[in-house]
Amino acid sequence: MESGPAIFAGTVFALFGAGLLLWTGTRVAHRAPVAHGVHSAAAATLATVAGSGALALAVWCFTRL
Predict the structure, then answer these.
(1) Residue 35, CB half-sphere, CA atoms under 13 Å: how many?
(2) Residues whose CB falls within 8 Å of the CB of residue 50, separated by 6 or more in sequence, listed in order
(3) Average of pLDDT values for 6-28?
(4) CA separation for the pair 28, 57 (Å, rounded)
(5) What's this model's pTM, rounded to 2 decimal places?
(6) At what angle do helices 3-29 and 40-63 cross, to 10 degrees?
(7) What is the C-alpha separation between 54 and 57, in angstroms, rounded?
(8) 24: CB partners within 8 A, 6+ apart
(9) Confidence of residue 10 (pLDDT cuts 50, 70, 90)
(10) For residues 22 and 40, what is the distance between their CA atoms, to the nearest angstrom?
(11) Conformational region of residue 31, where left means phi above 0, alpha means psi within -120 to 50, and beta covers everything else
């Protein structure tokens, strides 16, 4: 019973992180803005850090099983 929340949270973090990294990579590859009104390098860097952080949290959640 205790592993249920860890599985759920890990799955949510993994899906969010992977989706954010995929979306950011696609936007950068097409030279489209990642965020409106923000310098493109800063927005891409921040989105990459957030996506990687979410994936790291997913790994941490899955190691708690």
Answers:
(1) 12
(2) 17, 20
(3) 97
(4) 24
(5) 0.89
(6) 160
(7) 5
(8) 34, 44, 47, 48, 51
(9) very high
(10) 16
(11) left
| Lookup: tokens for 50 | 């957030």
Mean pLDDT of the chain, nearest integer: 95
User: What CA–CA distance (Å, rounded) separates 20 from 18?
Assistant: 5
Q: How far is the C-alpha of 51 from the C-alpha of 3, rounded, in Å?
A: 24
pLDDT surpasses 70 at 1: no
Query: 4-36: buried (b, 16+ CB within 10 Å) or exposed (e) per residue?
Result: eeeeebbeebbebbeebbeebeebbeeeeebee
By the 8 A CB rule, do 34 and 40 touch?
yes
DSSP string, 1-65: -THHHHHHHHHHHHHHHHHHHHHHHHHHHTT--SSTTS-HHHHHHHHHHHHHHHHHHHHHHHHT-
